[in-house]
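Re: your question from the hallway

Yes, I did run it. Sequences:
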Amino acid sequence: MIVFQQQLVHETRGRGTYDLTAKIDELVGKSAVDVGQCTVFVQHTSASLILCENADPSVRADLERYFADLVEDGDPHFTHRSEGPDDMAAHLRSILTTNSLTLPVADGRCALGTWQGIYLWEHRTQHHRRRMIVTVIGRGRSED
Amino acid sequence: MIVFQQQLVHETRGRGTYDLTAKIDELVGKSAVDVGQCTVFVQHTSASLILCENADPSVRADLERYFADLVEDGDPHFTHRSEGPDDMAAHLRSILTTNSLTLPVADGRCALGTWQGIYLWEHRTQHHRRRMIVTVIGRGRSED
Amino acid sequence: MIVFQQQLVHETRGRGTYDLTAKIDELVGKSAVDVGQCTVFVQHTSASLILCENADPSVRADLERYFADLVEDGDPHFTHRSEGPDDMAAHLRSILTTNSLTLPVADGRCALGTWQGIYLWEHRTQHHRRRMIVTVIGRGRSED
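Structure:
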């Protein structure tokens, strides 16, 4: 059995989705796990992780627009507003999505569907340095 | 340690929830894992997985109605609409729920609560063939 | 490899968020896992688990207010209402958040971000006894 873990840092340029698929696949390759699972975890409460359609960028544009309506920046009901109008909205957007993704590993790769990409979703309007932890657990190639 | 993995395919008849609890429990039994965890992952971005009350079907009817209001099919703000009015809505419904469920395994079974069922949620109005990957990791019976 | 599992019970005083971070960290310590992952799973469909900002309580107050607007108790469209106006709302709130959290374990502890706390979210207005299962899988200290 292999237990592999590595930190992954991504510098965002503010609100938006950032494709991490290649980076995660690289770490899964490095882990030498053949069959098992990979968990990506973001150590923040104002950024999240999603699996999203990876072919047509208009999907992610619509996603941004939809969430901007669902959770209004600077909603006058918010009492937590010391860090700006996007702060409480960012916490809510994170909770409505998720901080961690658990993905199957098969044949030494993330077994995603053809149209699935792994995205870090920055919910703050300013750029941030986002820390993630990638953990891969499973059976190695030589153990098969 | 056991690492078990198998594909699971479900043919949906269009939008709605499909009970997978018995199938998942069967795969957990086949894995021979006694204590550990089971991850179910759906390889699509327009279908998702949920744990839902399993006794009264009106819960799932209310759930459909609620999500149809929350994410309107054919919303005029959507720019991604080449595949029909339900396509972008399906992506949003998937992101608001989840693509993977991680369930505890105890005594060789999924340790669900009495009223919890595992459902595949098809968000497209047409029928689809949905592929999932079930991964079970843990200690086998003979290793206790 | 270690596979550790233990039940965790929390008596809630009704709707609200309950900090479980210290309890989960205690169980991770007890597991003796050094590097791996910890899954917390709630065996109910009207309570959920979230990672939330842990410094300013106004975040959780705003979260309650936001969800009370997003999913209205006693919505006249609900047909599932035998257990009271908060029952169907509780199911929807659970599905919009999540029943399980998978957290990385590093150096024998949950590798949370500085501002992340683990909360059980009771969605019913009455107090309830909530059962969770904590599973920790990974490499033990002596195996490094």
